[in-house]
Amino acid sequence: VGSDGGGRQVNIRVIDERLSPVLGSRGGVYSKTSTVSVSSEQIVSVLQEEADRVLRLMDYVPTPYPENATRLTLYLSSLDYRVSGNRKAAVTAVFRVEVVNAGRSYSGQYNAFLERSFTLPLNQEKNTKLVEHSLADAMTRMFKDPDLNRVLSKP
Q: Dihedral of the CA atoms 114, 10, 2, 50 (nearest 10)?
């Protein structure tokens, strides 16, 4: 991730567009009741903190005041968790982003797919790490996008 923000202010807003907090099922005999879920409030908070952290690393100043700041809106379009019969768990994360800065705008979509094999059923901690890694991968792709960075860094 580059560091070309020059101390400019960016208003970042995270919106959860998922239709349900349920990501999927752990599978097995009790698959209907063995779901993996993340509340909208929890996921928005985590994504907001991470986006703020990355923007600071890029030498931007995250700000809640949109008047004179660049606006970056991050939409979590989907976050899915699947377990296959061959003992693999997969998480797919999809972000959309819209950036408006100095009369220019950009929109893009970023996907991440992460699959892990396991011998024993995954516990809550391992499921959480799998989801976090997928989200981090999608966010990394977003912040490394040169087109997004061109609009974001325009003075």
A: -30
